[in-house]
């Protein structure tokens, strides 16, 4: 991978699909300091745009003008590093890595195959099964799920969720066969009336998953690799509270078993930067639920405990080393998210 070695030049960063991740904009502004500017892009007005040094409204991700628009913006604004904060953005950008590299822009985004495995929850399940990593039993059709119930392979309740999706959008808990069929149809309708229909069109006949519901404690992991895909560390957080499918409160912990699991996953995926992993401890076993090849909603809890991945990514992209302390978390740090008002200046 090409790295910039002239640390004296201005180093501008573009965060795409920034949405409401204004805290990440602030983290990167602190990381780059006076050496450059942090730009935020989104397809509609959002809080992150008003926190960035510069901002821009883009075409929709699936618009044919999206990539040409970003390439032109990067050229005009001398962008050195591009980072996406949204799942659906990742495969589009990863497929055009060379076009960005040709104009001197480094994409801090994983390879297409890694993105595909993480974005597609069925592919995630298959990946975990192939590598003998525990995960909740998952089915691609009503018939398969109902037969699994009859065989005693799983029991009620079951979770109905989009095969491609994020957060809590279109996720339902079915307590019996009647609810399963109702929620399956409801999830299908919601998918086709939201941005998820862009992803679902890859396999419209199998765009919903039915998954075993696990009981136990939920954990989040930030599995950190450098920008060449080399393992650095795993940050473990026990989730204390959830809101709309995202971590609302968490506490950092030392957990050798989960740290080992994170290192194993890192070696298998060779992702770049952060891998956000959801884990359930049930019956003494750690099950992986989902993986996201990007900064997740749980990263701020790592940051609050002393981790500074944005600073490390800026250093790596400039051909410098990251201090080991930047990627270590203090255990026992509990943090909570807050809701604040943002009044944009006219």
Topology (SSEs and partners):
Elements: E1 12-16, H1 22-32, E2 38-42, H2 47-51, E3 54-57, H3 66-76, E4 79-84, H4 89-94, H5 97-101, E5 106-107, H6 112-119, H7 121-130, E6 138-139, H8 142-151, E7 158-162, E8 172-174, H9 177-192, H10 197-200, E9 208-212, E10 217-225, E11 231-243, E12 246-253, H11 256-269, E13 274-282, E14 285-292, H12 299-304, H13 309-317, E15 334-336
Parallel strand pairs: 1-2, 1-4, 2-3, 4-5
Antiparallel strand pairs: 6-9, 7-8, 7-9, 10-11, 10-13, 11-12, 12-15, 13-14
Strand content: 25-35%
Unreliable parts: 1-8
Sheet with most strands: 6 strands, antiparallel
Adjacency order of strands in the biggest sheet? 14-13-10-11-12-15
In helices, the fraction of residues equals 25-40%
Overall average pLDDT: 93
Shape: globular
Number of strands: 15
